[in-house]
Amino acid sequence: QVQLVESGGGLVQTGGSLRLSCAASARTFSSYAMAWFRQAPGKERDFVGGISWSGANTYYADSVKGRFTVSRDNAKNTTYLQMNSLKPEDTAVYYCAASRTGVYYFSASYDYWGQGTQVSVSS
Q1: Main-chain dihedrals φ then ψ at residue 119, nearest 5 degrees
Q2: Residue 122's beta-bridge partner residues?
Q3: What digits encode the pLDDT tens for the residues 54-90?
Q4: Rounded distance, CA 37 to CA 50, Å?
């Protein structure tokens, strides 16, 4: 069982930055691929970015490429989402997720989820 706890959300103005963190309970954290998803009110949960277990490979949705960066620190059992140049359309609840088998764009492919953290971007 893996518990994931997100933090770092908040309210920011357009063009601002935030860094989200996702702390994992598992001692085997380094064996999981990690990803970030987001869900706006009335919309589906969408893939934002992901990182392989080693950190060697990262993947991003087109909407965030060049603005967001996913990273991880296996020694701290933590993955991060650095968000720059934020836009009002980035407003959503952000979730981190863990997968035993790899990074996928579909939320159903993940084994564990955090509770989410709200990010709001004002115009």
Answers
A1: -120, 125
A2: 13
A3: 999 999 999 999 999 999 999 999 999 999 999 999 9
A4: 9
CA distance linking residue 108 with residue 77, whole number of Å: 23
Report whether 79 contacts 50 (CB < 8 A): no
Say if residues 2 and 12 touch (Cβ distance below 8 Å). Answer: no
The overall average pLDDT reported for the chain is 96
Q: For 84-105, how does the pLDDT look when each residue is reduced to its tens digit (9 = 90+)? A: 999 999 999 999 999 999 999 9
Q: Compute the average pLDDT of residues 43-48.
A: 97
> Which SS3 state, helix, strand or coil, does residue 109 take?
helix
E strand residue ranges, the chain: 4-7, 10-13, 18-24, 33-39, 45-51, 58-60, 68-73, 78-83, 92-99, 112-113, 117-122
Which residues lie closer than 8 Å to 41 by C-beta, 6 or more apart? none
